[in-house]
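User: Hey, my collaborator sent me this sequence without any context and asked if I could get a structure. I don't really work with proteins. Can you help?
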Amino acid sequence: MSTRLTMANLARGIVEKLGQLMQLKRVGVLFFRSQKTCCCQEAYGFDGTAWEEFCVSSDREISEALQRFSGAISVEYLPPSLKAGFQDAGDRAWPEVHGVLRL
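Assistant: No problem. I've predicted the 3D structure and written it out in structure-token form, which is a compact way to encode the shape of the chain:
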């Protein structure tokens, strides 16, 4: 990562390190502004274009769904449109999604 850390650089560093350290094939991260609007997203191990389109078009729905849970949840518990969106963006089923971390 560079010495000047942007949100995009931070997201890229997080997904790369998680993928390497935890030996994950696919990792995606979203940053939300005011817990509603996706202001940054990054993908590792799959098509970033589909991930970006999904994140931008479904950001409020993702945020609202994840705020109902704490910790990791199975994608199976998400509304059908989000479940399908995660599957389409990642090219296959996601085992789980982790909730929103508030800073």
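In plain terms: The two ends are 21 Å apart (CA to CA). You can pass these tokens on to your collaborator as they are.
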